[in-house]
Specification:
Blueprint lengths: L13 H9 L5 H8 L2 E2 L2 E2 L3 H8 L2 E5 L5 H9 L12 E5 L11 E2 L14 E9 L2 H9 L6 E9 L17 H10 L2 E6 L16 H14 L8 E6 L7 H10 L7 E7 L8 H15 L8 E7 L11 H16 L2 E2 L5 E2 L7 E8 L7 H10 L10 E8 L9 H4 L12 H19 L3 E7 L1
Parallel strand pairs: 3-4, 4-6, 5-6, 6-7, 7-8, 8-9, 9-10, 10-11, 11-14, 14-15, 15-16
Antiparallel strand pairs: 1-2, 12-13
């Protein structure tokens, strides 16, 4: 009798293989193991899904050691066929509080130029020692289109560290190529205290050095074609960084579709009326750089730096709202020399407003701003969202909604959110006539 031969195992359905790999989607080492399974001519059914997840964002945390980053570099060597899969990388330090300095240091000798399809890079909570060399590292990434910075600070080069390495930035041609490639940029640089060298010189932040590269590339003839910019930088009295960013990224950029911008207020009610007028003029001059073909606009208001509760009030909020109203009511002369309303292509408009828990809503100011949106002139505007956030730490035993329930008007016992909601009805009724539009007021805890 011939020996019994067991039948070959039945192959698992492809959906089950994908489900198995989905469980390890955030473990790039395990995904590499799956991508390398199988034999020549007979790849494993795990390979397609593993390669798909590797082509999404890979997170590389940095703490005291660089083990994660070093392991990644060892696996994705220039000769490895896996390098073509890498599309997006996120390098981050440990989370920190708003006033803490980053605890992790960006490796000055890092080089990822051998990743031919790396299109997106995000960096957060990192100190950077050689800022000019750092920007050259960015410029040498051949396919980089999306860049995100969050809480990057300069760091003094310690004795015996990288002092022997020249801090040389990109060449002019590298700066031009970088500016031309970039399609999306996000910079989050909250208020911080200056960092100085041993000689007392102030260190430039990585964000400021990047801005200089963009300005240099633009002056050298680069065509800026970003479609999305998110700029959240704190101005100083000596350096209006917000306007510099807007000028570098927006002037003559007809491809721009989305702007997400934060206005940081430095002095609040201590300002004189003249100071308010000057700042308002500066902001409106900055907004002149924005193309009127924008489809999405989000403006955030941070009323103070370092959470000083004495520098804002209902009065400062009213000034901010008047400023936003001016954006939409000032006349705009189109290329055909016809005077129209600005931003007629706008589809999404959002305001994120941080307010004191005892703020009083000014119905007249809010109504004016709602009317300035003029949905009959901006027929593309489909969604308006007003988000209210409390500035102070919630009072023990009270919810945010209760904090915002302070009298909004001397004559009407309405909480702040209710007042804004009622003012929103002015424009909401016009939206209802025009079709499927939404106006919402949100209170965030």
């Amino acid at each position: 009798m011939s020996p019994t031969v067991d039948p070959p195992p039945t192959a698992l359905p492809a959906e089950l293989h994908d489900r198995i790999v989905d469980f390890i989607h955030d473990d790039w080492r395990a995904l590499v193991g799956c991508a390398l399974t199988g034999t020549v001519g007979l790849p494993s059914p795990l390979v397609p899904c593993a390669e798909y997840h590797l082509s999404r964002t890979i997170t590389l945390p940095i703490s005291v050691s660089y083990n994660e980053l070093l392991d990644f570099i060892k696996v994705f060597l220039p000769r490895s066929h896996l390098v073509s899969l890498i599309r997006s990388i996120y390098i981050c330090g440990p989370p920190i509080t708003p006033l803490e300095k980053p605890k992790a240091v960006f490796p000055a000798l890092l080089d990822l130029a051998h990743l031919p399809h790396l299109r997106a890079l995000a960096l957060s909570h990192l100190s950077v020692e050689l800022t000019a060399r750092f920007t050259r590292f960015l410029c040498k990434l051949p396919a980089l289109e999306e860049l995100s910075f969050e809480n990057l600070t300069p760091r003094v080069v310690l004795r015996g560290g990288y002092r022997a390495i020249p801090d040389v930035g990109p060449t002019e041609q590298e700066a031009v190529s970088f500016c031309t490639r970039l399609k999306s940029l996000r910079v989050v640089d909250p208020p911080s205290r200056a960092i100085q060298t041993d000689t007392g010189d102030r260190l430039q932040s990585p964000n400021d050095v990047l801005l200089q590269v963009l300005e240099r590339g633009r002056d050298a003839g680069a065509v800026i074609s970003l479609h999305t910019i998110k700029i959240h930088v704190a101005d100083t009295a000596e350096n209006n960084r917000r306007n510099r960013w807007m000028a570098a990224l927006c002037r003559g950029n007809n491809n721009l579709q989305c702007i997400d911008l934060t206005l940081y207020e430095r002095a609040g009610v201590k300002k004189t009326a003249d100071a308010w007028d000057i700042e308002s003029s500066d902001f409106l001059a900055c907004a002149e750089q924005w193309p009127h073909s924008l489809t999405s606009l989000c403006i955030r208001y941070e009323p103070w730096s370092f959470h000083d509760p004495d520098t804002t009030s209902s009065e400062t909020i009213d000034v901010f709202l008047d400023l936003l109203s001016s954006l939409f009511t000032r006349p705009y002369t189109s290329p055909t020399t016809q005077t129209t309303s600005p931003y007629v292509a706008l589809q999404i408009y959002e305001v994120i407003l941080k307010i004191p828990f005892d703020a009083r809503a000014n119905a007249e100011t809010w109504t004016k701003h709602m009317r300035s949106l003029n949905p009959r002139a901006r027929t593309s505007l489909k969604h308006v969202r007003i988000t209210l956030e409390s500035l102070k730490i919630p009072i023990l035993g009270q919810s945010l909604s209760e904090q915002l329930s302070i009298i909004a008007s001397p004559l009407e016992n309405l909480r702040y959110g209710d007042m804004v909601e009622r003012c929103g009805e002015v424009v909401r009724e016009e939206f209802r006539v025009l079709g499927d539009h939404t106006v919402e007021v949100v209170i965030k805890s």
